[in-house]
Queue: 2 jobs
Job 1
Amino acid sequence: MRGSAIVESVLVAFFLVFCVAGTLGAASSPPPSSTPSSLPSPSPSLGAVPSPPPPSPGAVPSPTATLFPVRQNGKWGYIDRSGKLVVAPRYETARSMRDGLAAISLDAKWGYLDATGKQAIGLLFDDVSHMGLDEARDFSEGLAAANDSVRWGYVDRTGKFVVLPRFAAARRFSDGLAAVKIQTKWGFIDRTGNVVIKPIYGSAGRFSEGLAAVREFGRYGKWGYVDKSGQVVVKPQWDSVSGEFSPSVGEFSDGLAAVCFKRQWGFADATSVTTGAAIETKFREVLPFSEGLAMFRRSYDPCGYMDRFGTPVIKERFLAASRFSEGLAAVKVQEGWGYIDKKGAFVIQPSFDLAEEFVDGLARVTKGKAQGYVDHKGRLVWPLTE
């Protein structure tokens, strides 16, 4: 009898330990998801305008190795983000660094510096007119347009032609494709130089958010948008698009593109093939959206900023204004150019003759012929020099 009692006590003890362990295991396990993990996340419908979280005003981007062009005694060199001179001024021209390389020119020849200031590609390429498309010389996606004194092709980061020169004009690569001019018409090539969208257009821009602006061939050709397969997504219907004669011709930003009809500007989205403008074409001037806001001007009035629904959110009180970048925008008032935050409050007081957008934590400012750089607090990182 006593032995059976001992056995019974042992069994009860094991049972209690098992129950406690089970309870603790259940408590430590995460609750099952109410949505099966195998189900895909819903994707936005065509033309839906995304709502990315805006950066905090004045937010400094993650540190990257980059250099900034500066002018001193008429020559160009480069500084780092702290304002330290890395490349002594000696070049005739110095462009901003893109994709880790910066285009420089000396004695009518172009080459490239890397982020340490060392010459990555020698002064090998001819300095010839590129129809105002100097941006094509900047590297993008590992390639840059270069000229052999007659035609344009593309070089890699070693300076070797990987797409042989055969184009009358060329733009930077974007989304794996680049707009090029073949004889008198524009089309698109891939990174190997193969034509993937036939040259049938009077002009063409870079791809952004999966679409590129193209203009019908002919004097009065209208602007529309194609996807990467060449399929027309937004039918040609606009008289002009933003930056028609600039590097950012017709680019989509925050799901919208600035378009013009009968000298009035508004914004189109990817559904505008059937619905017309997403924001009515009723403004004298607009800039593309950036960080959720876009500059607008009615008639000859001062300019302000609207949100993606076309609602004014910063009062119209500026003589001129630029796009938001890193939480700040350069604006002009009677006292000169300064910088505001997204509430419209001045963060850097207006005192400059010109102010550019922030890039990698610094912005170039001008007084007279002198140029310098300020940080987000308005401190001169590089003094104003000519």
Job 2
Amino acid sequence: MTRSTESIRKAIGQLFIVGFDGTEPDKDLRDLLRHYSPGGLILFKRNLEDPDQILRLTRGLQDPEALLPRLVCVDQEGGRVWRLPLPFTPFPEAQTLGNAGLDSLAHSAAKVIAEQLAAVGIHCNFAPVLDLHTNPENPVIMDEILEALGAEVIDWSYKVDCCGGSLSIAAPEIVEKLSGKIVDASKEAGADAIVSACGICQLNLDMRQPKDGGSPPVPILYFSELSALALGSKNFREWANKHFVDPSNLMQKLELI
């Protein structure tokens, strides 16, 4: 590979912020950092254990010979979207702070969050400057719908990850891997079921459950199914048995049918 080609590759890599599994850089991640030099990395709960581990991790993600430091990012928004564990100070969601009507309160909370993130080597916080509840693609909307229907929503790091639906025919093995990660992460988060607003995601997650032979499969519901159930539909079993993973047993256990 010529030097110019390598330079172009790394220049393109600077446009990307990437996530990864685990609490320390493994060989795959180190290879990616060396060959593509992404501009930054984003951390999720799956990467974070305690302040000492987080500081070791963020230092290990940097390249001391690089001209620019890698941007280390996180979603430390407040409320349900809170990635860092205790003893980091938990704060309510931005809307709650805003409803108090005190600019000084919001400023003080943001200052504490920023200082704590900086202390463990995190440079960028994707905290909301403005959240629009009218955005149908905003995950907050789905959460509020499910909570209004009586469900308990669990925050988890794969919440907005894609199942790879566009590759269902061309590269099903990729879709199976992506879907499997989402289902496995839901089990680790303690979820009883996954509810999707995307029909392709619902199908892929339902039919491509991990074949580990261990824990039971996770029921995958389309959000309108849960809506119908919450609104008193009496024929849930009639469509539930069309799923690859029949959710009827779960709904019966929860005394919903």
